[in-house]
């Protein structure tokens, strides 16, 4: 009886670890999506900007750096993100936090700005030249950009986020 209970407990623990390990990234991204939706930000149509300060809610956000985030909805086809030149650190992750592309300083534009094209799963259409291209494995994607306030210029950092299209 004792050995049987121990085996069931061990199996339950292993299932919990697997569930956490494989689903935590998806649940986390969905939490970001739902937070944006709760304040009226529509998937694929808008994005939110979080100014600095201790009111930001996020596991890894810095309180002295403004951020922008939103949901790219690729169900109707590819989407373009136009990033202006500047000190941005940006990314697109799929719904499971799988990497799709980097933008800004760590990306192929190296802070010089550019057009970033995000393709939906299974896309077979023509890919135009002049774009940095990311291939997503999901239709819903997280776009997130951090604007570094160079020389403490918070207004310029926020304006930079507002200029992303």
Q: How would you describe this structure to a colleague?
A:
The mean pLDDT is 90. 25% of the residues are buried. The chain starts with a helix and ends with a helix. The strands form 2 sheets. Strands 1-2-8-4-5 form a 5-stranded antiparallel sheet. Strands 3-6-7 form a 3-stranded mixed sheet, with no helix packed on it. The radius of gyration is 19 Å and the shape is globular. The chain has 165 residues and is of the alpha+beta class. Strand 4 and strand 5 form a beta hairpin. It contains 2 helices and 8 strands; from the N terminus they run αββββββββα.
Count every helix, treating DSSP H or I runs of 4 or more residues as helices: 2
Report mean pLDDT, rounded to a whole number: 90
Distance between the termini: 63 Å
Number of strands: 8
Structural class: alpha+beta
Report low-confidence residues grouped into runs of 5 or more: none
Helical content (DSSP H or I, runs of 4+): 25-40%
Order of helices and strands: HEEEEEEEEH
Note the overall shape. Answer: globular
The fraction of residues in strands falls at 25-35%
Largest sheet: 5 strands, antiparallel
Rg (C-alpha, Å):
19 Å
Task: For the largest sheet, list the strands in their spatial order.
Answer: 1-2-8-4-5
Labels describing this entry:
165 residues; alpha+beta; five-stranded antiparallel beta sheet; three-stranded mixed beta sheet
